[in-house]
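This part of the workshop introduces the protein records we will be handling. To make this concrete, we reproduce a full record directly below:
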Amino acid sequence: MNNFLLALQTVFEANANPDKAAPMKKYMRGQFDFLGIKTPLRRKLIKAFYTEHGLPPLDELQALVRQLWQMPYREYQYIALEFLTRRRRHLTPDYVPLLERLITTKSWWDTVDGLAAHQVGGLFARFPEIRDTHIGRWRQQENLWLRRTTLLFQLRYKEKTDEDLLFALIEENLADKEFFIQKAIGWSLREYSKSNRTAVQQFVAATELSPLAQREALKWMKNKGFIS
């Protein structure tokens, strides 16, 4: 571990709170250990760390992220995502193997959803020529987190959403009973409905969605009074 990460580890472990760590672990169904540093404090600590040590060096970014992903406390995975977000304009297609690794290891919604909507979605928006190769491979995988990523990577695209691709990906996953897939179907449709209500209404009417996916898909339009 290099000096940059050692300094980071020193700061965060000095602020560990075992009383908060236990309920944080419980909230994540016991899958991950926590230092007990909640989001507001984590953001405050990382901001102060940047002031003293600077942003993670670009030439070390991938190695730093990999090391953070291997560390035992979940806060370090959140910091890895923060590093990638801070350097998002510098991410290039050679980051795709790293992003895929992060999606498929220590996988849960708390990391995968951010990776999908921010890192993957942002990278494919900036380099559209690489999108179809990787989405084409991920959409065929048994790994539910890669398929969830294909459904969510356009969450922030708004009117630039590739509607045909989104609807095709949803149709491919209709029969999957996995909660995280059905939730992603509904979420992706809900976000797209904010840019194209008519298209989403027509798709929902013509498609046999699960009750969960349909409820999520129509939630925003119902809340706004566009449909009853």
